Amino acid sequence: MDSLSILAMAAAQVQQQELSQSTESPHGESYSIDADDYTYTIRKGKNSDIPYLRHVELSAGNRYRAVGLDDVAENRILDPDRLASMADSNHLWVAVDKYGPIGFLCGEKLDGNFHIVEVSVSQEFQGRGIGKGLMTTMLEQITLERSFKSVTLTTYRSVSWNGPWCSRMGFGEVHPKLLGSAYDFILETEEEQYGFDRQERCLMMKDLFY
């Protein structure tokens, strides 16, 4: 076998190893390709990601202006310390492409449930399944943790990429009083501090089965 053939075989082996490593990670990362061959990775969030998530939030919020919800667009920035706390608890997931973060999901424990604090995808990357990928990755990990009764979130009932999208992900609307006063407080705070219309907001829940 000549030297060129040996080099070609070695290059093919390296390429195969790289492909294998990109589709399966020992750290729980998941690799995805959308219909347009756009590639991104979902991984655990790190404190070093937090400064970049602000740009994701601002971009994602702009979409709400099209449906007259300027208050949402202007009040989507999470406290960096709160994000750091969720990252330290391994409850921050970030979608990244070769340029940096393009989406994230974060949450925290609330009355025995895992409460999603935010799901955001930069506006230019929406519609590629990134939000679904983040949600699926989170649900897989939370189920493995076996520490929560259900997953909860608050959202707009009729905005297409809010309540209806969550319904397709297996969430159902529940009355906040069924889950305790902490959830009523969240909805009240959303209205008082951020101007969200409580009549349009709802609490949704997805049971976890072990």
UniProtKB/TrEMBL annotation:
Residues 40-190 form the N-acetyltransferase domain. InterPro entries: Acyl_CoA_acyltransferase, GNAT_dom. GO terms for molecular function: acyltransferase activity, transferring groups other than amino-acyl groups. Keywords: Acyltransferase, Transferase. The keyword Acyltransferase applies. The keyword Transferase applies. Pfam families: Acetyltransf_7 (PF13508). PANTHER family: PEPTIDYL-LYSINE N-ACETYLTRANSFERASE YJAB. This is Acetyltransferase.
